[in-house]
From TrEMBL:
GO terms for molecular function: beta-lactamase activity. Residues 57-69 have a biased composition (Basic and acidic residues). Residues 1-24 form the signal peptide. The keyword Signal applies. InterPro entries: Beta-lactam/transpept-like (IPR012338), Beta-lactam_cat (IPR045155), Beta-lactam_class-A (IPR000871). It comes from the Bacteria. This is Serine hydrolase. Gene3D superfamilies: DD-peptidase/beta-lactamase superfamily. It comes from Xiamenia xianingshaonis. Pfam families: Beta-lactamase2. Residues 127-336 form the Beta-lactamase class A catalytic domain. Residues 42-97 are annotated as: Disordered. PANTHER family: BETA-LACTAMASE, BETA-LACTAMASE-TYPE TRANSPEPTIDASE FOLD CONTAINING PROTEIN.
Length: 365
């Protein structure tokens, strides 16, 4: 059964709220106790649930019959004071109107995923109003082979070290022969001896998904440090285990992992100016806005919206996650595995269109 989890957020979305700590602020103490009551899980019910409901109804009917018999046997006792009709009317008006809508949209997205037969996850969070039930995830906490989405976590550790004073954005680094690998990016064509600032390395890693820059940054900050920062941020499904283009590690089944929720956590921090500092948040936004891969979510966005995002691609793996910038901004993260690239891109388009339509109709913020 596909898990459909609308999430009601009072602050920042954290991955897997049922099990992960919530990040109150980047670099601060982690405590999500105040957010745990905000998680809403949609369940289609089960035989056990139905049996319990029936038993409860039968017990209620039995209790009512006993009360009626008691009243007939003791007419001299005063009738219980009636609850004012106003109270019940007020109670009927209290359920938030947006909740069923968020659930319906999540169900629509889940149906789209099922129609493709893919292993896919979607996380959506409105940035214009986080208190109206306009956030949901479909299998959002499920780990996926990350492809280049892991580069978001590497950027997080680099910026954490910049914020802590261990690194500086203007620091200069030289590309070595051993750094040259294939795959995406332009630095492999620049050759050894090329000098770049730390800021340039991060930009190449995010905007071009450059593998040379990525491996240089992993060497600089360390794999363990990246994974420790992921834990600190509450990224439960994120794990950096190999370098880019390490075919020997891939052949041995060693892969990097991330979830759509985890990507959303980082993007929400960036969008809210809480990615370590407002300045680093803006720099990250600039790099994401320079993304050279325009496939996936972007083609299905409405006119006037721009997309600051990161993509990831491997054989039968296609991910896209970013910040949709417009009058009512939001974060959308779609991870797809187990299908060809064309089908994955089509799935992303249908999911995006469903969300954009619901927003245009005022059904969700």
């Amino acid at each position: 059964m596909r898990k459909v989890k609308p999430l009601i957020i009072g602050g920042i979305l954290a991955a897997s709220l049922a099990a992960a700590p919530m990040l109150a602020s980047c670099g601060g103490d982690i405590n999500n106790d105040e957010y745990r009551d905000d998680l809403v899980v949609v369940d289609d019910g089960s035989a056990d649930d139905g049996g319990a409901a029936a038993a409860t109804a039968e017990k209620d009917a039995s209790d009512q019959a006993k009360e009626a018999a008691s009243e007939e046997a003791a007419p001299e006792e005063a009738a219980p004071e009636e609850t004012p009709a106003q109270d019940s009317a007020e109670a009927a008006d209290t359920p938030p109107e947006q909740r069923p809508i968020a659930e319906n949209l999540a169900a629509t997205v889940s149906g789209i995923i099922s129609s493709y037969g893919a292993n896919a996850s979607v996380t959506y969070t409105s940035l214009s109003d986080l208190d109206d039930y306009a956030t949901f995830a479909v299998d959002g906490s499920e780990p996926h082979v990350s492809a280049s989405m892991i580069k978001l976590a590497i950027m997080a550790e680099v910026f954490d070290q910049v914020n802590s004073g261990y690194l500086a954005l203007e620091d200069s680094y030289t590309v070595q022969e051993s750094d040259i690998v294939g795959g995406t990016g332009t630095l492999q064509g620049s050759g050894p001896g090329t000098q770049l600032s730390l800021s340039d390395l991060v930009r190449h890693m995010i905007a071009e998904s450059d593998n040379v820059a990525t491996n240089m940054l992993i060497d600089l900050v360390g794999m363990d440090a990246v994974n420790e920062e992921a834990v600190k941020l509450g990224l439960n499904a994120t794990s950096l285990q190999r370098y880019m283009m390490d075919t020997d590690a891939q052949a041995a089944g060693i892969e990097n992992h991330m979830s759509s929720d985890d990507a959303a956590v980082i993007l929400i921090l960036i969008a809210n100016g809480e990615f370590y500092t407002p300045e680093l948040s803006q720099l990250a936004t600039d790099f994401l806005s320079q993304q050279t891969d325009a496939g996936g979510i972007a083609p299905s966005l409405s006119s006037g919206e721009t997309f600051a995002h990161k993509t990831g691609t491997l054989t039968n793996v296609r991910h896209d996650a970013g910040i949709v910038q417009g009058e009512a901004p939001y974060v959308l993260s779609v991870f797809v595995e187990g299908t060809d690239e064309g089908s994955a891109l089509s799935l992303m388009g249908e999911v995006t269109t469903a969300i954009e339509t619901a927003r245009a109709n005022g059904e969700v913020a």
